[in-house]
Specification:
The complex is a heterodimer of chains A (about 110) and B (about 110). Chain A is mostly beta strands. Chain A is about 0% helix and about 50% strand. In chain A, a hairpin with a 4-residue loop joins strand 7 and strand 8. Chain B is mainly β and about 110 residues long. Classes of the chains: A mainly beta (about 110), B mainly beta (about 110).
């Protein structure tokens, strides 16, 4: 049973709009990472927050941003949506960024 | 940069057949290696891991051995079941304090009765 929950499970947005995806991580997990998984591909690292600060970013533009809150909730914000942003977005949490990442079930975003 | 290459699927096996999914990697330093599994409509679940050379990770009948000399981490299972049908991802975490998992493209396994 996963300790990471994501909402919503599915979402449809129009190109140019903004979207916020939410994640609730396991208690005690101070590290939250976000991944984008395009259809038929492996997940790609977007960025990571550690104790409410961003401490790493993959090859994604600044319109992908996020916040982490003290209550173990996090958000991924994507501005100016593009059709290629359509993907499954996965949240993963861990304690101090160690090996034990726990993934949520993801949010399926469709941009039309 | 870091990269992971997995054998392409899909792989279709009969129940009780032997499974091998090949995985090789390129990384700086001494990475930790992982296999994750994704069932339809779900997120990723950690299947097994190995953190140093010659370590063997194992779980639910699956095994993989960290081979530094061949930069490989092949997944094996002696007798697959229908319930093993899923997509399997090989991944690495490189360097001390590293925070980014690098994944392969995934291999879809279908097991038929």
């Amino acid at each position: 049973e996963t300790g990471v929950t994501q909402s919503p499970t599915h979402l449809i947005k129009t190109r140019g709009q903004q979207v916020t995806l939410r994640c609730s991580s396991q208690s005690g997990h101070n590290t939250v990472s976000w991944y984008q998984q395009a259809l038929g591909q492996g997940p790609q690292f977007i960025f990571q927050n550690y104790r409410e600060e961003e401490n790493g970013r993959g090859n994604f533009p600044p319109r992908f941003s996020g916040l982490q809150f003290p209550n173990y909730s996090s958000e991924l914000n994507v501005n100016a949506l593009e059709l290629d942003d359509s993907a499954l977005y996965l949240c993963a949490s861990s304690q101090n960024g160690d090996y034990g990442y726990t993934f949520g079930s993801g949010t399926r975003l469709t941009v039309v | 940069g870091n990269s992971v290459t997995q054998m392409e699927g899909p792989v279709t096996l009969s129940e009780e057949a032997f499974l091998t999914i090949n995985c090789t990697y390129t990384a700086t330093g001494y990475p930790s290696l992982f296999w994750y599994v994704q069932y339809p409509g779900e997120g990723l679940q950690l299947l097994l891991k190995a953190t140093k050379a010659d370590d063997k990770g194992s779980n639910k009948g699956f095994e993989a051995t960290y081979r530094k000399e061949t930069t490989s981490f092949h997944l094996e299972k002696g007798s697959v079941q229908v319930s093993d049908s899923a997509v399997y991802f090989c991944a690495l975490l490189s360097g001390a304090g590293s925070y980014q998992l690098t994944f392969g493209k995934g291999t879809k396994l279908s097991v038929i009765p």
